[in-house]
């Protein structure tokens, strides 16, 4: 089964992915976006990769476990693709077919950035593996979130409240290559991939995300609906210690 773009498939849901290095605040903004989509009457499915299914979560435990430090780069790629094949077949495809909005924290772009650019595996093969595992599914829009700083800053933010996982322990040079991969993807697929640099205020970051999605959801471009009051709670939440 393959999927065309949302514009060419009437009645199909909308698939939005969030990408970027660690510490850019993807989780916070996915939750905020989901909340307001639901308030507009949309069914929203929030997912993460790897994971999102019982099988995927077990594979996630393996691939991110620091105890699996000896995992080869090729094995790592196939673990990610196996988890992706499962989440597409079990969750994403059915949700899109019934018209839901699917928000996913990481998808194929992360595999290109981490396994092709970061690990140095052949990009053409990685892209073929992505296409096979997704049955040709491509996001309608990808929000690439970045801190606008070196990878070290994002890693420090990401591991502030937990021990580093196996990917976070891969080293600064690895993560710099990953960020190079994301920048390359954004440059080559600018219609789909939109860069959002995390601002000092979470409200400003969220406003930029909504702006990049306003062609898919016209109400996001309406100042009466998406005024300052809509985004203000994000800045109040900052005082509770949540990440940007």
From TrEMBL:
GO biological process assignments: dTDP biosynthetic process; dTTP biosynthetic process; dUDP biosynthetic process
Annotated InterPro entries: P-loop_NTPase, Thymidylate_kin-like_dom, Thymidylate_kin_CS, Thymidylate_kinase
PROSITE patterns recorded: THYMIDYLATE_KINASE
Keyword Nucleotide-binding: yes
Ligand binding (ATP): 20-27
Keywords assigned by UniProt, alphabetized: ATP-binding, Kinase, Nucleotide biosynthesis, Nucleotide-binding, Transferase
Pfam families assigned: Thymidylate_kin
Catalytic activity, reaction form: dTMP + ATP = dTDP + ADP
Signal peptide range in chain numbering: none
EC number: 2.7.4.9
Keyword Kinase: yes
Enzyme class label: transferase
Domain Thymidylate kinase-like: 18-209
Entry superkingdom: Bacteria
Molecular function terms, GO-annotated: ATP binding; dTMP kinase activity
Matching CDD domains: TMPK
An example Gene Ontology CC term for this record: cytosol
Role noted for this protein: Phosphorylation of dTMP to form dTDP in both de novo and salvage pathways of dTTP synthesis.
HAMAP family registered for this protein in UniProt: Thymidylate_kinase
Family per record: Belongs to the thymidylate kinase family.
Full protein name: Thymidylate kinase
Species whose genome carries this gene: Berryella intestinalis
């Amino acid at each position: 089964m393959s999927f065309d773009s949302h514009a060419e498939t009437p009645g199909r849901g909308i698939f939005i992915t969030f990408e970027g290095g660690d510490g850019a605040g993807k989780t916070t903004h996915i939750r905020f976006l989901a909340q307001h989509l639901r308030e507009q009457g949309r069914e929203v499915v929030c997912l993460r990769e790897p994971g999102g299914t019982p099988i995927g979560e077990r594979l996630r435990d393996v691939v991110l476990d620091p105890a699996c430090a000896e995992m080869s780069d090729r094995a790592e790629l196939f673990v990610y693709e196996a988890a992706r094949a499962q989440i597409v077949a079990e969750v994403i495809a059915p949700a899109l077919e019934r018209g839901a909005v699917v928000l996913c924290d990481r998808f194929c772009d992360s595999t290109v950035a981490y396994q092709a650019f970061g690990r140095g595996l052949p990009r053409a093969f990685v892209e073929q593996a992505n296409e096979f595992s997704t049955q040709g599914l491509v996001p309608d829009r990808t929000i690439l979130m970045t801190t606008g700083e070196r990878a070290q800053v994002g890693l420090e933010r990401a591991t502030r409240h937990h021990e580093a996982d196996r990917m976070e322990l891969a080293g600064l040079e690895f993560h710099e290559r990953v960020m190079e991969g994301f920048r390359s993807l954004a440059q080559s697929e600018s219609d789909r991939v939109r860069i959002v640099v995390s601002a000092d205020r979470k409200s400003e970051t969220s406003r930029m995300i909504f702006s990049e999605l306003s062609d898919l959801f016209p109400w996001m471009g309406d100042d009466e609906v998406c005024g300052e009051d809509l985004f203000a709670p994000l800045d109040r939440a900052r005082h509770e210690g949540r990440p940007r």
